[in-house]
## 1
Amino acid sequence: DIQLTQSPSFLSASVGDRVTITCRASQGISSYLAWYQQKPGKAPKLLIYAASTLQSGVPSRFSGSGSGTEFTLTISSLQPEDFATYYCQQLNSYPRITFGQGTRLEIK
Amino acid sequence: QVQLVESGGGVVQPGGSLRLSCAASGFTFSSYGMHWVRQAPGKGLEWVAFIRYDGSNKYYADSVKGRFTISRDNSKNTLYLQMNSLRAEDTAVYYCAKDRVVTTVTFAFDIWGQGTMVTVSS
């Protein structure tokens, strides 16, 4: 199975900061990558698919980039509601899809 | 509005069975592939199973193959997960999730239910 490694696993930042989360795949996955946000006790929410396409209704401060084996999720200016755990997911090898281990974003 | 509501979770002994349901509303259920995804306490996400919009194709994670069965009733707008031979490691919140694109398999999940907890313990 394709392994996804997110870095960092934990991130402390302040409101207004620009933050970047990286997701590296163990082999090339073209642009078959999605990003999800999950708040405690809630279901995940799709933010980005096809590596860089913003899901409808998601604020434009979220952006994604990358292809092949390295991808990034960027939040341009952190808002209080953005503090959550973020997961990347590879869809290249379905049905053997996998998720990253998650990046927990907390308020500094 | 578009909504998925799971039910059927609970506490079951190892080796036991449980059937989860997911009631869909607000979209044309019969036109979308559907998934089950689980999350063990304090852990990450694990995809469990998929069923095509018309029920003609199903996929399972290796960890549940041969024990879990996904099905759907498009007349009732309901997705199911029959879980047999349950193990402690199946303990998790189980989410149903809608595939993003109509009649196409993408494995991107754009709508999720609130989840139902399954605990396997003696």
Note: The interface with chain A takes residues 44-47, 50, 59-61, 95, 100, 105-110, 112-115 of chain B (CB under 8 Å).
## 2
Amino acid sequence: DIVMTQSPDSLAVSLGERATINCKSSQSVLYSSYNQNYLAWYQQKPGQPPKLLIYWASTRESGVPDRFSGGGSGTDFTLTISSLQAEDVAVYYCQQYYSTPLTFGGGTKVEIK
Amino acid sequence: EVQLLESGGVLVQPGGSLRLSCAASGFSFSSYAMSWVRQAPGKGLEWVSGISGSGGSTYYADSVKGRFTISRDSSDNTLYLQMTSLRAEDTAVYYCAKDRERAVVSPKSFQHWGQGTVVTVSS
């Protein structure tokens, strides 16, 4: 199974500042035939189901603000919130879909400093 | 508008059985892989099981393999999860999730989620 490790566990950032979340996979999730990284990011607010933010590691889902961006390749990935807004307070998860069983990172809680 | 409505979550004793349902609407149900994802109280997300659009291919997490069975009925656009030999560690909110991509066999990323149904395993 591919193990997904996120860091940090929690993050406090001032409004308008940048937040960066890291995600590392235990093996590459880059499918070389398609040159695509099988990696997604989700946002989950309290009492709500997760919401898809990013897929293919860097493609923003429709309707997601452009302050959210995904990067990285192979085994190391980042989710960046360029200018943190109050509504971005949530837990963020990475997920690999390179192989089953699909696996999620442990989550990163983002709060306002 | 895509809608996923889970039901069937209850309090059940260890060793018991339960069937969860997810009623889907607003999309071509048989064209998309579907999955169940769970979240234990205060914990992270855990993918449980997935099924291809045709229902011909199924996938399971090691933690539930041999105990849970995923299925789907395209005649009424419903996804199921049959759960047997339930354990305390199966206690969680169970979400039904629709794949983002059409016509893929194995589950990938999840574009739409239900609100979840609560399963509690306790004596």
Note: Chain A has a mean pLDDT of 97.
